[in-house]
UniProtKB/TrEMBL annotation:
Family matches, as Gene3D superfamilies: Immunoglobulins
Domain Fibronectin type-III: 901-999, 1185-1280
Transmembrane intervals: none
An example Gene Ontology CC term for this record: M band
Listed name of the protein: Immunoglobulin-like and fibronectin type III domain-containing protein 1
Pfam families the UniProt entry points to: fn3, I-set, THB
Length: 1389
């Protein structure tokens, strides 16, 4: 059984975990919930990874299999650092067939040795296990040595990056390529490392990562000197307004630190404000820094670096491809619910074109479709289903170039407000043939330019090679000449030396002959002859030695020349190695391979030469990197891919090799597949090899392999058997089923697929189940649905859905239930009701019953015997029967029905002798057609209307009616009445007054148009009346003010968005030209830095545990600020409820616990600044009493009280103790000590013979606990003989008049607090005391507490009010005299 234990830390956000042990040893499971939903389970390992100890350079693979519902997500991590997922370093894979997760190291290295963890997570829990990878490192490795060549100067690169002047600026010089690469890598994202390495020719990926990690650590230490925290670093982005921005969010330790901007190592000047004349600018808002580069061009490309003080913080690369817009995007006008297209053509192929919509980047999705032509020149953006909100400015950005255009969406003028139907047409989009023609021209021009550049490059390469060859020939000729001169000098010296030697030998021989003659003639001189012969032998030996020395000297000279040549060749080889290591080999070979070949050549020749000459050293011969490339043999251009095959259908595997002549062998599960195997066809077309299975069955599933020339590729064929339908059965099922009401309908559809298959039936989207009228039958390979007692409302879409482990499929059909039609729909519309004709119309029925309407049946009923009123009944007739009737109201025939009122006449134009009017006919024609109109006029100020047209001549039309009977300068109004067969109807509403005069000129533009004030909902504007220019601009009589949002083109009402405004002056001559504001206006109050408006804000709050804690704070800020609450410096938990309203924020802890104690800080921040305030909230409760109390006497006359601490002492740092005592002499409890923060106290003045008892209380901010009592304490007193000597008494007279021993003091008390006055009086007999306020006795006033104890007189006022202020006096009186004392009481507000 699994053991459960609570986890103190949190396993998921806001969730406490329960740890469990797995059945697999070494696996720990954390469950996030107490109880799991039915059918759900936490992750677990059925196979965990096994520890590996493996040799360096081999393949290491960790394998794991996990289970859980829902399916867990598997991730890997390592103890030291992070795992770098790269095809050459580490690969994470998942095999769907075996459900196996693997972590593979293709060539394991010593730095891969570590402890790894495998995590399996789902929403219900997490499982984790650890595994160790040990790597056995090998000895000397030539590859490592070559890698050192590439990375040995990294330290020098770091030192170069650090070279700075005294003020923190860099040295003014362009960056070297090595510096540039490392600076790019230091600021790049991990996902971009591979791309950067390929771009700059770095092949040692592991070495780069190792050195980069070291450099990053050093850089972080340097940054920490100037910057305390960095949140966001955004690489350079090109916007749609030809600007580029670099964003950093950092907290500077010293706000006065200097910030520098460099481009390719050269400082770039910039301004702190956004000025039009400056290309580079820096804008700072709080901790956010934004660099802007305006007017982008090709010269702006380069590496931009941001330095703070003397440290590089961030670097980003701006690329400027050589591309421009041949055809820019154009403005598009689209109707609502129509698609819109923008298109542009570039001058060169480009893949990374970006689209922006209303300043926001766009991406492919349901709303936007981004496409590019095959030649990568024509780029398109399609906006689907345009709505008015989609209107705005759209832009295309290619490198540093951009273009933009408006999208205008015309809204549907549907008065009912219904959403219109989707339109299939496309708005915008230029002529595709024309664009293709332009693109072709640009492609030809681009190809021509590229060919010219390639030709120039070839010429430059040929010239460079010719110059190098000439220089080499000259160097060899000079070397040969020097060698010949040296050889000639040697030969001359050697000949001279030989001549001298020959002379010496000749002299020695002559001496020898002379000695021989003397010995022969005289028989003497033997010694001399021997001496001559010895001299001759010595000369001969010396000659041989000299010849040997000359030979050795010549060999050494030749060896020295060979060594010089070897050193020169090795230097060239090293340069070649560095060059090759900085280039990626496109043919699969590396510089390391070339180096190895060179070493082999060296060893071979060295060995041969060593055999020939034992003393001569080895010489290097041949090139270090051979010019010829060894044929790697056949390799795969495209390998096999895993395939999911459907049972009964065809499946195909395909791969492509590098050679068309290559033959290969196919294998299935390790066994060779013969070409004549039934059901399989193997073909080869050029370099493509294919294996086709004509009809897949279960036995065809497995692992397939293709092998050619020692190379192989593998793939899995997984056979699936999802549910599916036979085509003929499906077509039959799709045929709609039509039945009559009350009958039954049957739907039946066979299917195939692997069991178990879940079958579901739906009617109009609602799933069906067995019922009294519904019956579902399932048999093997077939399902049947029977619907009985059908009604018209049951008509609709019938759907069957099949699902198994391999997939799901659906089929649709229609059910049509026929029934009688519903009655016709009203209301009845009377077209004409004359004495001879009644013409009316109605609407068709709401439901025709599924049949075509044959005709309508009308019945008429005459109301009354002699009347002319009629009633009609109307029915609908179809093949299913006749509908219920619709009965009309009574219709009166032959009565006079006058027309209604036309619209008020509208003035089209006015002149001094003519006024042109127009109006609309009445909506109510009285049942007959309109014959004409009567028009009347009236002067302003008059009550008489006069007919304009003669009584016998009606005005036939109201489209345009001129009125010429007018007097110049007079003001008129007009009204009109319609006439039909019954006569003239009522007159319309009068028109507006109009002067009979020639048209005036429209006024000019308003002057000095500006905004005087703004809030979130209002804008205050002011302007000056336009000038009155005779003959050009007349006086303005009024003004129209128009507004529009910044992103819209239509002038309309104002709202809270940024708006632009115009004012238009108007008079009788029309409207003048609009006067616009220069810039957009943001509808908001002036910026205000956040500040708290409460006069007094408490900074400390005590809350009882279990109660709610609520804290309100008011503030003001503009624009709307961002409000953040923190607890002890971190965001508050989800338990705390934050409510923000206008100018107010509330923090609420619903049920406070002791763990909620802390310092809560509110941070109010906007673009102007920020403000914060902190409050300490202490959650506590009445403490529990302390433990048992012990008493001990360490010093006579004292007692030490000790007790066990209260259980709440560790939870409450403000908890303390209070000690009280009681003795047998005074039976009242007295406090002897308070604010004790330890568990011991010593009480003094303990009297022998008295019995003592002590109580200890625990106290905190909420109050005191119940006491813990000590046992009784008694020290027995030693009894001695007691004697009393009484003194002699003398008679004494103590009588005296009253006298104040201690007078009253002045008092000043706060309102609402208590006030205590006292004084001391002596007198005998005891005086009578009376208190007065403002000379009014207080002895009988119950609002004052008066006491007199042993001559101490006191007056107590419990709650001082303003009425208690004044003069207080006390009078003491006895038979011997009277005494008074007074004071004043001041009450403070």
């Amino acid at each position: 059984m699994w053991k459960k234990s609570k986890v103190t830390d949190q396993s998921a956000a806001g969730q406490a975990g329960i740890r469990k042990k797995s059945k697999v040893p070494g696996v720990m499971i954390t469950q996030f919930q107490e109880e799991l939903p039915e059918g759900m389970s936490t992750p677990d390992f059925t196979r965990k990874p096994i520890a590996l100890t493996i040799q360096e350079g081999k393949v290491a693979i960790f394998r794991a299999i996990v289970v859980g519902t829902p399916t867990p997500t598997v991730t890997w991590s390592r103890a030291n650092g992070e795992i770098v997922f790269h095809p050459e370093v580490c690969i994470q894979k998942y095999d769907e067939a075996s459900h196996e997760h693997t972590l593979e190291f293709p060539k394991v290295a010593p730095e891969d040795a570590d402890t790894y963890k495998c995590f399996a997570n789902n929403e219900h829990g997490r499982a984790v296990c650890t595994v160790v990878l040990n790597v056995i490192a090998l000895g000397f490795s030539k590859t490592k040595e070559l890698q050192k060549v590439q990375t040995e100067d990294t330290t020098d690169f770091r030192n170069k990056l650090k070279k700075r002047n005294a003020d923190g600026t860099r040295e003014e010089k362009p960056m070297e390529p090595e510096e540039r690469v490392w600076e790019i890598l230091l600021s790049a994202d991990k996902k971009d490392y591979e791309t950067i390495c390929v771009e700059h020719g770095i092949t040692d990926f592991r070495g780069m990562l190792k050195k980069l990690t070291e450099m990053k650590k050093e850089r972080e230490e340097e940054i920490a000197e100037f910057v305390s925290h960095i949140n966001t670093l955004k690489h350079i982005e090109v916007n749609d307004d030809d600007c580029a921005t670099i964003e950093l969010d950092m907290d500077l330790k010293d706000p006065s630190s200097k910030i520098f901007l460099y481009k390719d190592g050269v400082m770039v000047p910039f301004t702190k404000e956004d000025c039009d004349g400056q290309k580079h600018s820096l804008k700072q808002v709080g901790k956010k820094f934004v660099f802007t580069i305006k007017g982008l061009g090709k010269d702006d490309a380069g590496l931009y670096s941001v330095d703070v003080g003397g440290c590089n913080v961030f670097s980003t690369n701006l690329k400027a491809p050589d591309v421009e817009f041949a055809v820019k995007i154009q403005e598009v006008k689209a109707e609502e619910r129509q698609d819109a297209m923008f298109q542009c053509v570039l001058t060169a192929p480009y893949d990374e074109l970006k689209w922006f919509g209303k300043k926001a980047p766009l991406s492919n999705g349901e709303k936007f479709e981004i496409s590019v032509s095959e030649d990568r020149l024509i780029h398109s953006l399609i906006i689907r289903d345009c709505a008015p909100l989609d209107a705005g400015i759209y832009a295309a950005v290619a490198g540093v170039k951009s273009c933009n255009a408006w999208l205008i969406v015309e809204a549907d003028k549907d008065p009912k407000g219904k959403k219109g139907e989707r339109k299939s047409t496309m708005a915008g989009g230029a002529n595709s043939e024309e664009l293709a023609k332009i693109a072709k021209e640009q492609q030809e021009r681009y190809d021509k330019e590229m060919a010219e550049k390639i030709e120039k490059a070839k010429q430059a390469q040929a010239e460079r090679e010719a110059a190098e060859a000439a220089a080499k020939v000259e160097a060899e000729a000079a070397k040969k000449e020097a060698a010949e001169a040296k050889a000639a000098a040697k030969a001359a010296a050697k000949a001279e030396a030989k001549a001298k030697k020959a002379e010496k030998i000749a002299a020695a021989r002559a001496a020898k002959e002379e000695a021989a003659r003397r010995r022969a003639g005289l028989g003497e001189g033997e010694a001399g002859a021997d001496g001559g012969a010895g001299a001759l032998e010595e000369l001969e030996e010396q000659e041989e030695l000299e010849e040997q020395e000359e030979l050795e000297e010549q060999e050494e000279l030749e060896e020295q020349e060979g060594q010089e040549e070897l050193e020169q060749q090795e230097g060239q080889e090293k340069m070649d190695l560095m060059t090759n290591l900085m280039k990626m080999s496109a043919e699969g070979g590396t510089a390391a391979d070339g180096a190895g070949g060179a070493d082999g050549a060296e060893e071979g020749e060295g060995g041969a030469e060593g055999a020939a000459k034992g003393k001569r050293k080895k010489k290097r011969a041949g090139q270090l990197v051979p010019d010829t490339v060894i044929d790697p043999g056949v390799h795969f251009h495209a390998g096999l891919s895993d395939c999911k095959a459907i049972m009964g259908e065809a499946a195909e595997l395909e791969c492509k090799v590098s050679s068309e002549e290559c033959k290969g062998i196919w294998y299935k599960d390790g066994e060779e597949i013969k070409t004549d195997m039934e059901g399989i066809t193997i073909t080869q077309e050029g370099s493509f090899h294919r294996l086709k299975i004509h009809k897949v069955t279960e036995e065809f599933g497995g692992k397939y392999k293709f092998e050619a020339d020692g190379r192989k590729t593998e793939a899995m064929i997984v056979v699936e058997d999802p549910p599916r339908f036979v085509a003929e059965d499906l077509e039959t099922f799709k045929t709609p089923v039509t039945v009559k009401k009350g009958h039954k309908a049957t739907f039946k559809l066979p299917f195939v697929g692997r069991d178990p298959i879940k079958v579901q039936w739906y009617l109009e989207g609602e799933e069906l189940s067995d019922d009294s009228n519904i019956k579902i039958e399932h048999t093997e390979g077939c399902s049947r649905l029977l619907l009985t007692k059908l009604q018209r409302k049951d008509s609709g879409e019938v759907k069957i859905k099949l699902k198994n482990e391999f997939g799901a499929v659906e089929a649709l059909s229609q059910l049509i239930v026929l029934d009688k039609p519903t009655p016709p729909m009203g209301p009845l519309e009377i077209v004409e009701a004359s004495s001879s004709v009644i013409d009316f119309k109605w609407r068709p029925p709401k439901d025709s019953g599924g049949c075509k309407i044959d005709n309508y049946i009308l019945e008429r009923n005459q109301i009354g015997h002699h009347g002319r009123r009629y009633c009609y009944r109307i029915r609908v007739e179809t093949e299913m029967g006749t509908s219920e009737l619709m009965e009309t109201e009574d219709i009166q025939a032959g009565t006079k029905a006058y027309p209604g009122q036309p619209s008020a006449p509208k003035v089209v134009s006015a002149f001094k002798d003519c006024i042109n009017l127009t109006w609309s006919p009445p909506s109510n024609t009285g049942g007959t057609s309109i014959l004409g109109y009567n028009l009347e006029k009236r002067k302003k100020g008059s009550n008489l209307w006069g007919l304009v047209n003669p009584p016998e001549e009606m005005i036939r039309s109201g489209k345009l009616c001129p009125v010429k009977d007018v007097v110049e300068g007079m003001e008129y109004e007009f009204r009109v009445a319609a006439i039909n067969n019954s006569g003239a109807g009522e007159f319309s509403v009068p028109s507006e007054f109009v002067f009979a005069r020639d048209p005036k000129k429209p006024p000019g533009k308003a002057i000095d148009f500006k905004v005087t004030d703004s809030t979130y909902t209002t804008l205050s504007l002011s302007w000056t009346k336009p000038k009155d220019i005779e003959g050009e601009e007349d006086e303005a009589k009024g003004y129209f003010v128009e507004v529009r949002p910044a992103e819209n083109t239509d002038w309309d009402r104002c709202n809270t968005n940024a708006i632009t405004m115009t004012v238009i002056a108007t008079n009788e001559g029309g409207e003048g030209l609009p006067q616009e504001l220069d810039n957009y206006i943001l509808a908001m109050p002036p910026p205000v830095r956040p500040r708290f408006t409460d006069a007094k804000i408490k900074s400390f709050m005590i809350v009882r545990a279990g109660n709610s804690a609520r804290f309100n704070i008011n503030f003001e800020a503009s624009p709307w600020p961002e409000v953040t609450w923190l607890k002890d410096g971190v965001p508050v938990s989800k338990k705390v409820t934050i409510s923000n309203a206008e100018g107010m924020s509330q923090l609420l802890i619903p049920s406070a616990e002791r763990s909620d104690t802390g310092i809560y800080t509110i941070v109010v921040k906007n673009i102007v600044g920020q403000e914060s305030f902190s409050i300490e909230i202490r959650v506590t409760d009445e403490p529990k009493p302390p433990g048992p109390v012990d008493l001990d006497e360490n010093v006579p006359g004292t007692v030490t009280i000790s007790w066990t601490a209260s259980p709440d002492e560790k939870k409450d740092d403000r908890l303390h103790y209070m000690v009280t005592k009681r003795d047998s002499h005074k039976r009242q409890w007295q406090t002897v000590a308070d604010l004790i923060f330890n568990n011991k106290f010593t009480a003094c003045n303990i009297m022998p013979g008295r019995e003592y008892q002590f109580r200890v209380y625990a106290k905190n901010d909420m109050g005191s606990s119940k006491p813990s009592e000590s046992p009784k304490w008694l020290i027995q007193a030693k009894k001695e003989k007691f004697t009393v000597t009484l003194p002699e008494s003398k008679p004494c007279d103590l009588q005296c008049a009253p006298k104040f021993i201690m007078p009253l003091k002045m008092h000043a008390a706060p309102q609402g607090y208590e006030c205590y006055m006292s004084c001391a009086i002596k007198g005998d007999p005891t005086p009578h005391v009376t208190w007065y306020r403002n000379n009014i006795s207080l002895n009988t006033n119950t609002n004052y507490f008066i006491s007199n104890t042993c001559g101490v007189c006191s007056l107590l006022i419990l709650r001082v009010g303003s009425k208690d202020s004044g003069e207080y006096k006390i009078a003491a009186e006895n038979p011997l005299g009277r005494a008074e004392c007074s004071t004043k009481l001041t009450v403070r507000e």
